[in-house]
Amino acid sequence: xxxxxxxxxxxxxxxxxxxxxxxxxxxxxxxxxxxxxxxxxxxxxxxxxxxxxxxxxxxxxxxxxxxxxxxxxxxxxxxxxxxxxxxxxxxxxxxxxxxxxxxxxxxxxxxxxxxxxxxxxxxxxxxxxxxxxxxxxxxxxxxxxxxxxxxxxxxxxxxxxxxxxxxxxxxxxxxxxxxxxxxxxxxxxxxxxxxxxxxxxxxxxxxxxxxxxxxxxxxxxxxxxxxxxxxxxxxxxxxxxxxxxxxxxxxxxxxxxxxxxx
Length: 262
Description:
globular, Udp-n-acetylmuramoylalanyl-d-glutamate--2,6- Diaminopimelate Ligase, Chain: A, domain 1, five-stranded mixed β-sheet, single chain, alpha/beta
């Protein structure tokens, strides 16, 4: 099967026109007419992931994060981006990114997977791109089946999202039931989370002074960028394997998280 067929499928799942203006989702290396031998899914298409693809006879990598965001002026192997691209091209490996277009869809999107992990009910898009389309927009909001006391919820969050660390603001609420989530750097949705009545907002990449924006109106819980999106890896492989039988998709075994905890 040719890569074009996989790209056409992705266009149905998360159309490229839904990506943000700064993004670079889509086909980054490779050709749409190449025959697929196998697929590796990942968050970050690093050198190690390309090497894993080569070792497993997979010539397509489907990543969440684009390896190239801005233009490259040379390919001299001077950084990890250039090294990854060079290795992929030399070995005829296609790299595809499903980034903010996958963030911005309800069904089979990044945030739906987080909401599912937390067993949220009555799930909805947090911030709609168009009020006439309830399935396109940023973040997700839903309810726990029953309220939990705040500290118990944070421990529940840590377990369900398989994280080592949760950074959070003052627990000014005794209980939590309404939960807003945004995979990756979702701080821009804080006001929307508060407007929608969320008790807690789960996201990543908060800076020190930004935590003050909770202003005793909501609890911010920062679980880390990689950690918030890690289940996207399996989401991508499941989507492919559930819809194609001529080749296999496997989730990467490489942990590409650049952040370590002690």
